[in-house]
UniProtKB/TrEMBL annotation:
Gene3D superfamilies: MFS general substrate transporter like domains. GO terms for cellular component: plasma membrane. The chain crosses the membrane at residues 34-58, 64-85, 106-134, 175-198, 236-255, 275-297, 304-323, 329-351, 363-385, 391-414. Keywords: Cell membrane, Membrane, Transmembrane, Transmembrane helix, Transport. It is a multi-pass membrane protein. InterPro entries: MFS_trans_sf, TM_effector. This is MFS transporter.
Length: 416
């Protein structure tokens, strides 16, 4: 609790910075302001449910491998079904699709909360998989809806502001979830997540996104192939996807096994998990705030700062593995969160700036495969490796391997 009180001045400074970010051009649009408010609560729910399910996996099995499995199952469907939902996103009413996917999240969490007294490890894995399937549909819908609420020249501001929202929740919600779990139990945390989805459902009825331009509908798999070809044949998008895949697998995969670091390595329990996740969120919020006020907004290109951030993120993962004390672990996780968000927002903004609305759902569904689906592979691998060699060594191996792959890719890109 003392640590929480010491964090209050820092949070107040971040909130003042957040208020200044709210003055950017995108917030002159009423629809985007409503969308931003609804998403503010919805992303709190996302982080609460993720921390709670991750903690349940560790609490009920004590297995790092199972924590990685549950994290992976909640993300793996994006790798397999995300592109198909991307095609559907470009075909359906985007507002109604958002209502369906947000409602699906509520149903999954409600069923899990009601069944917790009887559910075992297999049931928890099935719940994570169900949430992952709904999320694989939700990601391309969410990434397509915001940009279609504003004029095209404001799309980059929308991407940065939405990332700010997501990462403000990443700072606040995990610490809150850890305290709720410690004081009241996991079921209460899940019911809080359910309640936080309701404002988004209320806001969606007020939104009127921009219609797609008229086009002739092609066969489903032909449109799916169009999205793949556009991403493959656009050098900027191709490089952004490769950078994201490596970083997501190694660095963001490491952030999915924080329960093992919190309790397995430092014996800090659910509150420790909340603090670690909030540290990642704190670093992420700083990056998102800086991006939201326009720093590094370079349009459709990848700046040098992104290459520095991907290498910094890999070094942070190594730091998590070799951290001798709790404070160093918190700092390393915070740096990993900063680098993750800086890279994610910069690369997504570069992709979305000149992306045609008619292809947005398909291309951004592939982005979620690169940015979210591959996290599942990293979580699986790091969790399994931690059971074999320990969490510290597993994180060091992940960070070094990711850094080497990034060096090869950056060198290759510079020569082209």
């Amino acid at each position: 609790m003392l640590l929480c009180r010491k964090c209050i001045p820092i949070i107040l400074v971040l909130l003042r910075f957040w208020a200044s970010a709210m003055k950017v051009a995108a917030f002159s649009n009423r629809q985007f302001r409503l969308f931003f408010i609804g998403v503010f609560f919805a992303v709190q729910a996302i982080w609460i449910q993720r921390v709670t399910i991750s903690w349940l996996a560790w609490e009920r099995t004590g297995s790092a491998g199972f924590v990685g499995l549950v994290a992976g199952l909640s993300l793996l469907p994006t790798l397999l079904t995300g592109p198909f939902f991307g095609v559907l996103t470009d075909r359906v009413d985007i507002r109604r699709a958002s209502i369906v996917t947000n409602s699906g999240q509520v149903i999954c969490i409600t069923v899990l909360a009601l069944s917790l007294p009887w559910i075992g490890a297999p049931g928890l894995a099935l719940a994570a998989l169900a949430i992952g399937i709904v999320s694989s549909a939700h990601h391309p819908v969410r990434m397509s809806l915001g940009p279609r609420l504003v004029p095209t020249e404001l799309v980059q501001h929308v991407v940065s502001a939405t990332a700010l929202n997501f990462n403000m929740a990443r700072l606040v919600a995990p610490a809150g979830a850890g305290l709720i779990i410690a004081q009241f139990g996991a079921p209460v945390a899940l019911w809080v997540a359910v309640a936080f989805y309701l404002p988004m459902l209320a806001v969606l009825s007020q939104l009127r996104p921009r219609d797609l331009p008229p086009r002739q509908t092609r066969p489903f798999f032909g449109e799916l192939a169009d999205g793949f070809r556009y991403a493959r044949d656009t050098p900027l998008i191709r490089l952004a996807f490769l950078l994201t895949m490596i970083f997501a697998t190694s660095a963001r995969g490491a952030l999915e096994v924080l329960p093992v670091l919190a309790d397995g390595a430092f014996e800090r329990g659910a509150e420790g998990l909340g603090l670690l996740t909030a540290a990642a969120g704190g670093g992420a919020v700083v990056a998102a705030l800086v991006k939201a006020v326009g720093v590094g907004a370079v349009g459709a290109r990848i700046p040098l700062a992104v290459y520095a951030a991907v290498m910094g993120g890999q070094l942070a993962v190594v730091g998590m593995g070799v951290a001798p004390v709790w404070s160093v672990a918190l700092l390393a996780v915070g740096l990993a969160g900063f680098c993750s968000t800086w890279c994610g927002v910069s690369l997504q903004a570069a992709i979305q700036t000149d992306l045609p609305d008619a292809l947005r759902g398909r291309v951004m569904s592939l982005w979620t495969v690169a940015g979210f689906g591959t996290v599942a592979l990293g979580a699986f691998a790091i969790g399994a490796l931690a059971d074999w060699v320990g969490i510290g060594a597993a994180l060091v191996i992940a960070g070094l391997a990711g850094g080497l792959c990034h060096l090869i890719l950056i060198t290759w890109g510079a020569r082209r």
